[in-house]
Amino acid sequence: MAALCCASISAEIINGTSGDLTFSLNTETGVMNFDGNGAMADYENQDESPWSPYVYHITSVRFWGNPTAIGDNAFCGCQNLTACNFPSTLTRIGKNAFNGCSKLTGSVSFGNSLTTLGDRVFKNCYKITGFYISATLTDIGTEAFAHCNGITYFAGNNDNPNYTIADAVLFNKDKTVLMYYPAAHSRTSYTVPQSVTEIGDWAFSNATNLTELILPDQLETIGLCGLENCSALMEITFPASLQSLGDLAMFGCTALTQIVTLATTPPTATEFTFHEVPKTIPVYIPTGTFEAYKSATGWKAFKNKYPIPDEAIDQTTNNKSQTTNHKRIQNGQLLIQRDNQLFNVQGARVE
Question: Per-residue pLDDT for 320 more than 60?
């Protein structure tokens, strides 16, 4: 019988310990059982666990007893793992614990003891369909749900002090940050609430059903990969308040037919913010900002920039005439609606 870290090998059964828990893995069936009370050990990386040579054998994980924590990197890279139960006694699931478990299937519901999800805990779990966020879960790490392309909903208890859910979308409590949009939701149009000032990293990543996304007037930031691979999105209008677009924020938005930006100072961007966005599409910018956008990183790659007339920027009501101007996108064109009539960006009336 050969020893492997803290585990012993007997035929196809791997036995060992991890922190306060014992485990048994049947390499033939792929079933892995944990038992005991307390926390699993944390691992510096996915190669440090005693079952690391067998990660491709693991197909299901079951916890018995009263476990309180799933350790850092515990099942990272278990590409054949399809099922795991999450006991109600868990208080923490560590960073990268299920990162890369691309076959983990179904919805995930956390019990009323869980307080912490580590960084990248479910990143690249493509087949998870939904998450239920309990009222006790107050610490969600960065990129926790990044590239969970199969999610159709977030749900939860809005008594949670740090997070709230509306229309299946996860926000911080006061709805100033849109954290994650369910990428596989069936709707084709979504209006971001006016309270939102930041669209977080990976927030709309792979939301491939969206053809229309309406951004709020006070939005300041779109984070890293914020709208990555929104491959059906046809146009986007950035508000005047927008200050920054993260690296790869618009990467893979290949269906875009035009961009409108109302910001008089070009929002900061990187060389790869608009990677794979067609650079020949029209980009409408405020009058008098051509030179700024011509030299701005990211923006300068677009070949066709056109000024927006003042009417398109001024969307407020004139108190004297009670005339209201609104922007509209119709058949891929930016139009101005004024006094119930439509005008193009050159000022000509459109029938």
Answer: no
